[in-house]
UniProtKB/TrEMBL annotation:
<comment type="function">
    <text>May play a role in copper homeostasis. Can bind one Cu(1+) per subunit.</text>
</comment>
<dbReference type="GO" id="GO:0005634">
    <property type="term" value="C:nucleus"/>
</dbReference>
<dbReference type="InterPro" id="IPR036822">
    <property type="entry name" value="CutC-like_dom_sf"/>
</dbReference>
<dbReference type="GO" id="GO:0005737">
    <property type="term" value="C:cytoplasm"/>
</dbReference>
<dbReference type="GO" id="GO:0005507">
    <property type="term" value="F:copper ion binding"/>
</dbReference>
<protein>
    <recommendedName>
        <fullName>Copper homeostasis protein cutC homolog</fullName>
    </recommendedName>
</protein>
<comment type="similarity">
    <text>Belongs to the CutC family.</text>
</comment>
<keyword id="KW-0539">Nucleus</keyword>
<comment type="subunit">
    <text>Homotetramer.</text>
</comment>
<keyword id="KW-0186">Copper</keyword>
<dbReference type="Pfam" id="PF03932">
    <property type="entry name" value="CutC"/>
</dbReference>
<keyword id="KW-0963">Cytoplasm</keyword>
<dbReference type="InterPro" id="IPR005627">
    <property type="entry name" value="CutC-like"/>
</dbReference>
<keyword id="KW-0479">Metal-binding</keyword>
């Protein structure tokens, strides 16, 4: 439903994240079935590309599963998401992704943010020849210029969100619907148009 509505409202390409649950990136057979079903439905309802990632228990790219999922995704372009930041050897992992046919990778340089991981991002960018790599993780209007100039990246990925208070007037303080302490029950994160425009302006000035 979200994909259908988004496609009606925007003209930019929409890539759909295939992620059956939170947590790690080691998936069970049932979860793989869900991922394949989600890919088929996303394609059916107009996705312009897919985004997923899968690892083995020892922190390597799960080539067997990725190959199977890529086959379901075709002919759409596919991005490997920030599961990349949990790999054992990022340089080897990047070569694996290129050989498998991924067109993009999302990474913060295997660190808490793209700024902290900038040195690795620069090494990865030097290694990339056919892979377009948008870096992500903690990118804001305050650090985007430094990251783009320091990484030679041609694309970037960020959430550009702000908190918006709920419109609920009656609030029951005794019940929580699964929200954690970092995500208050009566506050939601939404895309901030002003932030997006600022980030775009910064990027256009550099790229």
């Amino acid at each position: 439903g979200l994909l259908q509505v988004v496609k009606q409202c925007v003209r930019v390409p929409v890539f759909v994240m295939i992620r059956p649950r939170g947590g790690d990136f080691l998936y069970s057979d049932r979860e793989v079935e869900v991922m394949k079903a989600d890919i088929r439905l996303a394609k059916l309802h107009g996705a312009d590309g897919l985004v997923f990632g899968a690892l083995t228990e020892d922190g390597r790219i799960d080539t067997e599963l990725c190959t199977a999922l890529l086959a379901v995704c075709r002919p759409l372009p596919v991005t490997f998401h920030r599961a990349f930041d949990m790999v054992h050897d990022p340089l080897v992992a990047l070569e694996t992704l290129i050989s498998l046919g991924f067109e993009r990778v999302l990474t913060s340089g295997c660190d808490s943010s793209a700024l902290e991981g900038l040195s690795l991002i620069k090494r990865l960018a030097e290694q990339v020849s056919v892979l377009c790599a948008p870096w992500g993780g903690g990118i804001t209007e305050r650090n985007l210029q430094r990251i783009l100039e320091g990484s030679t990246a041609s694309e970037f990925h960020c959430s550009a969100r702000s908190a918006r208070d709920s419109g609920m007037k009656f609030r029951n303080p005794n019940v929580a619907m699964g929200a954690s302490f970092s995500a208050p029950e009566y506050s939601i994160k939404v895309a901030d148009v002003a932030k997006v425009r600022t980030l775009n302006a910064i990027a256009k000035n550099i790229l």
